[in-house]
């Protein structure tokens, strides 16, 4: 792929040819008389091609950036073009500067999500050392069950990272190049673990597993494989703020939010999905897939079987993909049953090729530092392409090594999953009850490590600015880092995501006390 | 319904369906042959010997020894368990401070302590690809002296869509980079309307195994400074320098020169000099603050496992170990290089004089049937299928002249080296006879005509096709 104008006519010829011909042929009949065939087909064809060519040229910025002096003038140019750059990654201006595509995407640190994380890093709460520090409720991390893993490790200690004597892989696993998409033993272990997590309602096949260093690169790699730069995915909103970085940033795939409302408990509606798809078509944006998170982040609800079947039908009719981010599948605490997209795909033999699942060990297994993510796809070509891309995001063999032995201990895994769920449940109950005492309600959720809290009564004015004012108050005065709905692209202002699994039970009253102060200071005067 | 997309075909992206992953190049064909029939000293002595993978197996026992002696560095041991919780949760893209300090120290040591590195400029990266995302837009160009590492096309061209513009180097002056060639490549790129964003250097060079001298480096830095384009220096083989002249890094040169430091970036890793490819540690060190900040955010796509960071922080801070390791590793490399090149010399095969790297650049021009790339391919096919050595042909490195081959020697034990040399000796001997008799080239030494044994049933359907497989793993099982 080159950036020269030479390449463009070739591209533009392909799309109008087929659509064009279907318009042109009837036109021939209109032009009667001498030269009818030529005038009737050739002229409209030529005009049509030139129109396409003209439109294509005018959509991309000029190929030769005017030579400018390298200085701040260039930087402001970069920022101004940020909205266009999301669709077209061109327009590098000066020379010795970083690429426009990278610096012009709204700097991730502008998002409250990242600002909050930074603040916690600077001033973290510590019971002894820093009791007035910022309490982290903005990172969905699970600290409730790490002791179980630690206990397992202590019972299964080895002499070193190389593992126990009989292990053939030992030093060679570290000192030699191994398959970039994961050791076979590890893929088997991951497939087994995923099967356990989904409560054995579906069986995962190791040959469909591609291992990456975390779910973040897994998502990015999938985006590179399924969509071209400038294409789009439909994604139910509110959604995880990290998607913007994972999918829009380097892969250049747009995210079109499909807004969900509190009146429906933020459940996705197929009608809304259809509307969004059609609007995208009208704008000329090519939708390549739907990205769902199930259990949903940040709301915490789960998509039921019917909805999943509807989604698959929707995707089939429009010939697009479905990416299901199921990273919280094992962190469910409600009474509903979790249904994986894999289960749906399994039952509908004909359409598996469009279903792809993202998973990882950062949430359910509490080990985000070890960087383990999975792409699970039924599509052989996607697997083949993803495997080649994992060379930039592969998992340390030592880590795979350690996890193989851990994940193969079936009894331990079952115990762990069960206990983990119980602990999340009790924290959830305590947390929600505490909020309720303050008169604050949450949506009914059944999965994830967080709850979706309604603080809309407390914001003034009732818009994004009011929400961010409250967020600022919570962060800087109450010293609680939570994620505002606007960072998650929620269309209704006043909703916040509170993660509760970074706390221990003793800290809940402290959090509630700080919340109380904010709630009282925000009570609208009657 | 869209008129175009009728049918049930699942459309992949252009990137996924293109050939730009480069894995159809002959560089990888050799691996396919190896995957199908890997050499094993006892179980498959007539298999293909892997000499196309630049892996450093020589100092492996030193690492093993250190790890066993320092159980607290591994969190799965009784001594190390206390660090488990914090390590398991640590996902900060800055990277563990101890880890960054340790890597900075290692980098300084590999450069003879003549330059120091700031740990805050160290960014974890899944390869030089990340730098390309930071520095270039799709369609931008980077100059690169050829011959160059075959996989750069994939690493830099596939997702970032950067164009690589070769700067031809000739054997007549030992493949050194000349200013004339650089200027010529630059000007022709400009004429073709390509926005040249920078110059990529591999120092020590892959596949040549040579290091750049002071005057060349100075010329190059002056060049990029003058044109105000970036300089990306791939120094992953820095500590594989086994003989003088000693390694000169770009970081040393810029200490003595006027230069816009915002243009200088270094890529390192632990896969080559430390022989630890399994850990997946790639580092970008940039003197440009914007690149460091952006790169750090991008490192989320390729963070090093915190367990690994923890271990390496310990290992690389053990200064005494690191010094001993670096010198012993260099000594072993020197000895292996010497015995291999001597063996080749005995049959009249010369290699480019090199002082670094895990390979040598073999001159087989005199063995070509015709001095063309077809001739080179023909010879290479014979080497793969008859001599059963996976070597890499120069054309896959974009070498301007046919007849050069890269052969790796650090990823095997001494006995395997002997077997390889023996096969080469036999081949060259037979080859000389072919020049007299036409049919003789297909007559094989009894040993080589044995039917190939499948080492392991699993290998036939191995999912590991197309990925590098270390021969030593096979050899030990």
UniProtKB/TrEMBL annotation, chain A:
Residues 135-514 form the Aminotransferase class I/classII large domain. One of its GO terms (molecular function) is aromatic-amino-acid transaminase activity. The keyword Zinc does not apply. Keywords: Aminotransferase, Pyridoxal phosphate, Transferase. SUPFAM superfamilies: PLP-dependent transferases. Gene3D superfamilies: Aspartate Aminotransferase, domain 1, Type I PLP-dependent aspartate aminotransferase-like (Major domain). CDD domains: AAT_like (cd00609). The keyword Chaperone does not apply. InterPro entries: Aminotransferase_I/II_large, Ethylene_sulfur-biosynth, NHTrfase_class1_PyrdxlP-BS, PyrdxlP-dep_Trfase, PyrdxlP-dep_Trfase_major, PyrdxlP-dep_Trfase_small. Residues 1-20 are annotated as: Disordered. Belongs to the class-I pyridoxal-phosphate-dependent aminotransferase family. This is Probable aminotransferase ACS12. It comes from Sesamum indicum.
Automatic annotation (TrEMBL), chain B:
Coiled coil: none annotated. It comes from the Eukaryota. The gene is LOC105173022. The keyword Transferase does not apply. Keywords: Pyridoxal phosphate. PANTHER family: 1-AMINOCYCLOPROPANE-1-CARBOXYLATE SYNTHASE-LIKE PROTEIN 1, BIFUNCTIONAL ASPARTATE AMINOTRANSFERASE AND GLUTAMATE/ASPARTATE-PREPHENATE AMINOTRANSFERASE-RELATED. One of its GO terms (molecular function) is pyridoxal phosphate binding. Residues 49-424 form the Aminotransferase class I/classII large domain. Belongs to the class-I pyridoxal-phosphate-dependent aminotransferase family. InterPro entries: Aminotransferase_I/II_large, Ethylene_sulfur-biosynth, NHTrfase_class1_PyrdxlP-BS, PyrdxlP-dep_Trfase, PyrdxlP-dep_Trfase_major, PyrdxlP-dep_Trfase_small. This is 1-aminocyclopropane-1-carboxylate synthase 1.
């Amino acid at each position: 792929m080159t950036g020269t104008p030479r390449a463009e006519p070739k591209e533009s010829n392909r799309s109008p040819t087929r659509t064009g011909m279907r318009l042109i042929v009837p036109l021939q009949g209109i032009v009667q008389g001498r030269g009818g065939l030529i005038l009737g087909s050739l002229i409209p064809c030529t005009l049509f091609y030139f129109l396409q060519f003209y439109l294509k040229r005018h959509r991309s910025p000029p190929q030769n950036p005017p030579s400018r002096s390298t200085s701040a003038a260039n930087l402001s140019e970069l920022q101004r073009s940020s909205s266009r750059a999301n669709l077209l990654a061109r327009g590098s201006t000066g020379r010795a500067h970083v690429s426009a595509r990278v610096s012009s995407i709204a700097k991730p640190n502008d998002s409250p999500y990242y600002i909050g994380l930074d603040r916690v890093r600077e001033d973290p709460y510590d019971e002894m050392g820093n009791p007035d520090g910022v309490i982290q409720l903005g990172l969905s991390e699970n600290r409730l069950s790490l002791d179980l893993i630690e206990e397992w490790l202590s019972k299964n200690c080895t002499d070193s990272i190389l593992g126990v004597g009989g292990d053939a892989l030992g030093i060679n696993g570290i000192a030699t190049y191994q398959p970039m998409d994961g050791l076979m033993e590890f893929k088997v272990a991951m497939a087994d673990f995923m099967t356990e997590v989904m409560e054995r309602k579906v069986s995962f096949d190791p040959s469909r597993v591609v291992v990456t260093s975390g779910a973040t690169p897994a998502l990015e790699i999938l985006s590179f494989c399924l969509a071209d730069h400038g294409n789009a995915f439909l994604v139910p909103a509110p959604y995880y703020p990290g998607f913007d970085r994972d999918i829009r940033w380097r892969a250049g795939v747009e995210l079109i939010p499909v807004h969900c409302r509190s009146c429906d408990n933020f459940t996705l509606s197929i009608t809304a999905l259809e509307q969004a798809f059609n609007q995208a078509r009208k704008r000329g944006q090519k939708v390549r897939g739907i990205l769902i998170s199930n259990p949903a982040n940040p709301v915490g609800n789960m998509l039921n079987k019917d909805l999943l079947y509807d989604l698959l039908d929707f995707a089939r009719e429009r010939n697009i993909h479905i990416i299901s981010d199921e990273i919280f599948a094992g962190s469910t605490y409600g009474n509903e049953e979790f249904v994986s997209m894999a289960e749906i795909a399994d039952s509908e033999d004909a359409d598996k090729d469009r279903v792809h699942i993202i998973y990882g060990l950062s949430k359910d297994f509490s080990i985000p530092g070890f960087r383990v993510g999975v792409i699970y796809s039924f599509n052989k070509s996607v697997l083949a392409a993803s495997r080649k891309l994992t060379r930039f995001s592969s998992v340390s063999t030592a880590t795979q090594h350690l996890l193989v032995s851990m994940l193969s201990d079936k009894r331990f895994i079952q115990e762990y999953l069960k206990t983990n769920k119980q602990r999340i449940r009790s924290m959830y109950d305590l947390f929600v009850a505490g909020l309720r005492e303050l008169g604050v309600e949450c949506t009914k959720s059944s999965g994830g490590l967080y709850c979706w809290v309604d603080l809309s009564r407390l914001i003034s004015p009732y818009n994004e600015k009011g929400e961010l004012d409250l967020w600022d108050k919570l962060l800087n005065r109450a010293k609680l880092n939570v994620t505002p709905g606007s960072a998650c692209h929620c269309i209704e202002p006043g909703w916040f995501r509170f993660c509760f699994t970074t706390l221990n039970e003793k800290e809940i009253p402290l959090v509630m006390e700080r919340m109380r102060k904010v709630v009282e200071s925000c009570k609208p005067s009657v | 319904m869209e008129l175009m997309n009728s049918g049930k075909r699942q459309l992949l992206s252009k990137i996924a369906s293109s050939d730009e992953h480069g894995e159809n190049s002959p560089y990888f064909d050799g691996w396919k042959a190896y995957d199908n029939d890997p050499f094993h000293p006892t179980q498959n002595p007539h298999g293909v010997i892997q000499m196309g993978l630049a892996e450093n197996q020589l100092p492996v026992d030193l690492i093993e020894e250190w790890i066993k002696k320092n159980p607290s560095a591994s969190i799965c041991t009784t001594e190390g368990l206390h660090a488990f919780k914090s390590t398991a949760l640590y996902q900060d893209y800055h990277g563990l401070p101890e880890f960054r300090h340790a890597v900075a120290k290692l980098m300084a040591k590999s450069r003879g302590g003549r330059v120091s590195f700031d740990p805050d400029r160290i960014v974890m990266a899944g390869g030089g690809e990340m730098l390309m995302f930071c520095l270039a837009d799709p369609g931008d160009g980077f100059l690169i002296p050829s011959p160059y590492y075959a996989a750069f096309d994939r690493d830099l061209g596939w997702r970032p869509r950067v164009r690589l513009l070769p700067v031809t180097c000739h054997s007549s002056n030992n493949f050194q980079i000349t200013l004339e060639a650089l200027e010529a490549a630059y000007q022709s790129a400009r004429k073709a309307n390509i926005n040249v964003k920078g110059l990529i250097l591999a120092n020590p060079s892959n596949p040549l195994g040579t290091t750049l001298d002071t005057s060349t480096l100075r010329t190059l830095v002056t060049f990029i400074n003058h044109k105000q384009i970036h300089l990306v220096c791939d120094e992953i083989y820095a500590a594989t320098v086994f003989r003088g002249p000693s390694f000169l890094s770009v970081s040393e040169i810029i200490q003595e020169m006027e230069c816009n430091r915002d243009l200088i970036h270094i890529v390192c890793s632990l896969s080559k000099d430390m022989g630890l490819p399994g850990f997946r540690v790639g580092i970008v060190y940039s003197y440009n603050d914007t690149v460091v900040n952006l790169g750090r955010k991008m490192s989320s796509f390729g963070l090093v496992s915190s367990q690994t960071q923890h271990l390496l922080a310990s290992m690389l801070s053990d200064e005494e170990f690191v010094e001993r390791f670096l010198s012993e590793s260099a000594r072993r490399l020197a000895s292996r290089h010497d015995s291999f090149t001597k063996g080749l010399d005995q049959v009249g095969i010369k290699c480019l004089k090199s002082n670094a790297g895990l390979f040598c650049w073999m001159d087989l021009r005199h063995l070509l049937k015709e001095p063309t790339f077809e001739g080179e391919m023909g010879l290479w096919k014979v080497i793969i299928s008859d001599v059963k050595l996976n070597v890499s042909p120069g054309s896959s490195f974009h070498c301007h002249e046919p007849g050069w081959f890269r052969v790796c020697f650090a990823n095997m034990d001494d006995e395997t080296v002997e077997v390889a040399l023996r096969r080469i000796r036999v081949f060259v001997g037979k080859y000389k006879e072919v020049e007299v008799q036409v049919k003789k080239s297909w007559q094989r030494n009894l040993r080589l005509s044995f039917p190939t044994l499948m080492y392991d049933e699993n290998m036939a359907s191995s999912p590991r096709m197309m990925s590098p497989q270390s021969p030593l793993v096979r050899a030990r099982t």
